[in-house]
Amino acid sequence: MTKKELVSAIAEKSGLSKKDSESALNCALAVVTEELSKGNEVQITGFGTFSVKTRASREGKNPQTGEAISIPESKVPSFKAGKSLKDAVAE
Prior knowledge:
Blueprint (H helix, E strand, L loop, with lengths): L2 H12 L3 H20 L4 E3 L3 E8 L2 E4 L6 E4 L2 E8 L1 H8 L1
Antiparallel strand pairs: 1-2, 2-5, 3-4
Helix pairs in contact: 1-2
């Protein structure tokens, strides 16, 4: 599903216009992004939890030369599905 399709589905289910639905979706995504960039987590009961995890530094290989390289530590976004979402998908 693309963002455009998601906006259409939100508009259909909520009765909002597509413009209002897109605005609401963009605002929600902006808030989640902003909170994650601060290092906070966002928990949506029944849906899941968005958080930031630290990926440890590690050794890798340059695929072209086979030379060993050091990959630095990095922060990555993470999502853990809630029970209701897991149950809905399992059905």
